[in-house]
Automatic annotation (TrEMBL):
Highest taxon in the source lineage: Bacteria
Alphabetized UniProt keyword annotations: Membrane, Transmembrane, Transmembrane helix
Name of this protein: LigA protein
Residues spanning the membrane: 30-50, 70-90, 102-126, 146-169, 196-217, 237-257, 266-286, 306-328
Length: 346
């Protein structure tokens, strides 16, 4: 799915090929790159320490020795290392020569995972600190509070840096995407299928968003006892943001499929689909994997409402991504036929 999307985006404007030689990245690009890499360093340092056997940041040293946790730390450290590689590729000219899927796939995943964090954590933490006596972390949490502060502050700066670097990179590599109007995007042979998928995705997105809004505004039905213990302003705000992004992605996709006059620039609804589909799909998939890895997943404590909501979100995100892939693939084919000189490489 992602490969089809990014392959379709590799068509460069026939008269405006992306330059790849001469000059440096410029102060802005270099500054964004350095700031983003610096934001990754604390997280990478903590993970490296834990993988080396350190228990820094742990109140319960025995919990740090869990083998599943070791694997999880290795995976998440690798993901953050990929973020460093991606932002460097976005900054320097050699990144323009890389296959599009190699940089856009991790960016799609990263943007989807980081988007709720960059909004929910700082705002939710501020609200809970000012208006609630409850602590930001549970009293029985095996991790010390400062770890969360370091990690999520770093994630927030990483998100801002990665998105800024990506926009600067995309405007250079695919300038036509930022100039074409939505209503001018040609309708291909599969337009009817795209409409069907888009409206089906919207139904699932509405179901998912409704559940997320219910929990965001204080609802507790469908949540397990363990989940209720950790619910604060941050988690409730994250639920609300997940619901909003699911609706944004669905609405943006419908706007593209209908070739509406608003918003006029194709890049605007495309960004909405990109972020909405990425967030909805990656977070629900992450939660599904987490639950399937829990040996007690199928016991009586598993909440069916929460699981069904996650399934609705997973289907919505998947359908939005598939529809976007089909649409961009047809746009690619049309550009190739309309201009034989168009290149699939930057």
């Amino acid at each position: 799915m992602v490969r089809a999307i990014v392959d379709a985006m590799t068509v460069s404007a026939p008269l405006r090929p992306a330059p790849v030689a001469g000059g440096g990245p410029g102060r802005l690009r270099l500054g964004v790159c350095l700031a983003t890499v610096a934001a990754c360093v604390p997280y990478l340092t903590i993970k490296l320490a834990w993988l080396s056997g350190s228990t820094v940041g742990w109140d319960d040293p025995e919990a740090a020795k869990d083998s599943a946790l070791y694997v999880g730390n290795a995976i998440t450290m690798g993901m953050d290392a990929v973020a460093v590689a991606v932002v460097v590729a976005f900054t320097f000219r050699w990144g323009l020569r890389l296959p599009a899927w190699l940089v856009l796939t991790p960016m799609w995943i990263g943007a989807g995972l980081l988007a709720p964090i960059v909004v929910a954590v700082p705002i939710g933490a501020l609200v809970q600190t000012l208006f609630s006596s409850a602590p930001l972390t549970a009293s029985d949490n095996p991790l010390q509070g400062w770890v969360y502060g370091v990690v999520y502050t770093g994630f927030s700066f990483q998100a801002v840096g990665l998105i800024t670097a990506f926009v600067l990179y995309a405007r250079r590599r695919w300038p036509d995407v930022f100039t074409v109007r939505t209503k001018d995007v040609p309708r291909g042979a599969t337009h009817s299928l795209q409409a069907l998928l888009a409206y089906t995705a919207t139904v699932f997105a509405l179901v998912f968003a409704a559940a997320q809004f219910y929990w965001a505004f204080g609802g507790t039905s469908g949540l397990t006892a363990d989940e209720l213990d950790y619910r604060g302003a941050v988690q409730r705000l994250a639920d609300g943001i997940m619901g909003v992004l699911a609706l944004v992605g669905a609405a943006a996709l419908v706007a593209i499929v209908r070739r509406g006059a608003r918003p006029p620039r194709f890049a605007v609804p495309l960004a909405g689909v990109w972020l909405g589909a990425g967030t909805t799909f990656t977070w629900t998939l992450f939660e599904l994997i987490t639950k399937l890895g829990d040996p007690e997943f199928l016991d009586s404590g598993s909440a069916s409402a929460l699981n069904l909501s996650g399934l609705a979100g997973l289907i919505a995100g998947l359908l939005m991504g598939v529809t976007g892939a089909v649409l961009l693939t047809e746009r690619d084919a049309h550009a190739q036929s309309a201009s034989p000189t168009a290149s699939r490489t930057p």
